[in-house]
Amino acid sequence: MSSRAALLRSRPILGYATSTWAIRSSWRLPMLEMDGIDVRYGATQVLWDVSLRVGAGEVVAVMGPNGSGKSTVLKVAMGLKTPSAGRVVFEGADLTRAPATARPGAGMSIVLERRRLFPRMSLRENIEIGGFVLPRAEARAQMEGVLALFPELVPHLEASAGRLSGGQQQMAAIARGLMAKPRLLLMDEPLLGLSPALQTRAFQLMADINARGVAILFNEQNAALSFRLSHRGYLLESGRVVLTGSGTDMLNHPEIRRVYLGEAAA
Ligand SMILES: Nc1ncnc2c1ncn2[C@@H]1O[C@H](COP(=O)(O)OP(=O)(O)OP(=O)(O)O)[C@@H](O)[C@H]1O
Ligand SMILES: [Mg+2]
């Protein structure tokens, strides 16, 4: 593991854990475990025996060509799609058949692609909604903490969300996801439609979020950025996991370098 990754992993847990045992065991036990997942849409099977795990405090990327099943993996984790086989276990609780609405209370937040804000409500209201599972005082404190991560949103808090730029809306969707104090953030294409400068900003933000102790499972087309940020990654092809390893291993794998990073075959 790189020293940066080690830092990202060790810092948050020290803040959360109450005993040495908790520190040690949190590394050994996966936080999210997806095991042997099959998914069908009608008669068509689109995921085959997909197994994936996210440890406490880890950033995990799912990569793959268009249509390989990345969003479907995220949907199963989010409770938006029930698998035809396999299990989804989060912190020891079986959530395979639990609906998406049960996720925030369980410590998982969802950031969907295409943002899905309420356009006529203010930016502030849109973000506050994410904290509905928290008591009021706690939600207020969390709002302050979240806004500290997004200084660029502060001047626009009273504007209608529909008037914000695409980049600001995407930041707002992430801010909303953080309001529920998740221990795991699930993100389907968090950088979709962002300019290169904003993509870099969004990745920095994901690193900052992770440094505060939040694990992240996401899928994103940009392999170079994704695997650099991630502790571990998975490569999907036609609905199957064909490669998995540390972020660095994934980044250095010849197939990934050739197909996703556009390098000529040696
Ligand atoms: N609601 C649906 N009904 C039927 N088939 C679907 C549905 N959603 C996805 N699929 C199919 O499932 C497969 C996996 O789709 P998925 O959206 O998970 O892929 P993806 O890797 O996220 O693709 P992209 O890179 O385009 O976002 C594809 O063949 C897709 O056509
Ligand atoms: Mg997708």
From TrEMBL:
GO terms for molecular function: ATP binding; ATP hydrolysis activity; branched-chain amino acid transmembrane transporter activity. GO terms for biological process: L-amino acid transport. InterPro entries: AAA+_ATPase, ABC_transporter-like_ATP-bd, ABC_transporter-like_CS, BCAA_Transport_ATP-bd_LivF, P-loop_NTPase. It comes from the Bacteria. Residues 32-263 form the ABC transporter domain. Keywords: Amino-acid transport, ATP-binding, Nucleotide-binding, Transport. SUPFAM superfamilies: P-loop containing nucleoside triphosphate hydrolases (SSF52540). PROSITE patterns: ABC_TRANSPORTER_1 (PS00211), ABC_TRANSPORTER_2 (PS50893). Belongs to the ABC transporter superfamily. PANTHER family: HIGH-AFFINITY BRANCHED-CHAIN AMINO ACID TRANSPORT ATP-BINDING PROTEIN LIVF. This is ABC transporter ATP-binding protein.
